[in-house]
Amino acid sequence: xxxxxxxxxGGTKIQTIVMAADxxxxxxxxxxxxxxxxxxxxxxxxxxxxxxxxxxxxxxGEPITQLDGVGxxxxxxxxxxxxxxxxxxxxxxxxxxxxxGGELSELLGVPVRLGNDxxxxxxxxxxxxxxxEAGSLLxxxxxxxIGGGIVLDGKLWQGRGGAGEIGHMVIRHGGARCxxxxxxxxxxxxxxxxxxxxxxxxxxxxxKSKLFEIMRSRDRDRLTSGVWEEALGQGDDLAxxxxxxxxxxxxxGIASAVNLLDVDLVVLGGGLGTRFxxxxxxxxxxxxxxxxxxxxxxxxxKVAELGDLGGAIGAALLCEP
Length: 321
Ligand SMILES: [Zn+2]
Hints:
By secondary structure, the protein is an alpha/beta fold. The chain is built from eleven helices and twelve strands.
């Protein structure tokens, strides 16, 4: 029996959980959430992580005297052994390497372990979510960008540390410019950021769309998955076109990965991936069809089950002996 903390560090929010584990039984007994500080750099972010972790402990439905450890799922380049995070991509002011593990451990008074955010979310789905019955799976997290995680024969596959970047599978030679600077990546067609940029261009060129009206009415400054859902619900042409384009891109990219790995299961997660439910999983599965080499036995495509807490749950699982 152990009680572990899990922290999912995102570009806009920090999500924490307290998890009680007893053999195969895992139970989330408290959660916390804070916005990721936009100022103050890594130090401010680490302090907010500690505060958010304490919040989850206080919110737990039972008294928690001591956590046995805290796991962190972080973006960027992670050195698990030293607890250092470098190049944490979209986190503001995070330029050089920062000793997240050491600082957090000092603030919380418990051992801290670090892992990659998408790997953690994938592992959580494998152990406790949509992939419980699978031996091998591919996690595809469809949000601002497109992240991927791979479990092969019950083990997380990290390659030399950089495996799973399905968002940067090339689906079109010389294609659209990606945020990574290269061309033709899946993310340049299906990432929320790329979809939003294209919607902006199309509207500027005179195409009618309610997307940005809906965004403003919801008091948002970006096209969130909720905005896309509402626009689709209203039959907005541009929203339909861009989602269809993204689904075609996901179909080619995921099918190519499946041709290589032949996993049992594809788990579709992330804000956009989970927003539309199993209907979207079926749509992505159909889009994969034409690109599957072994098209007589396609893998199952399922929506992630752990939702917003998946990353934090996977992070807490880092602490299990
Ligand atoms: Zn790319």
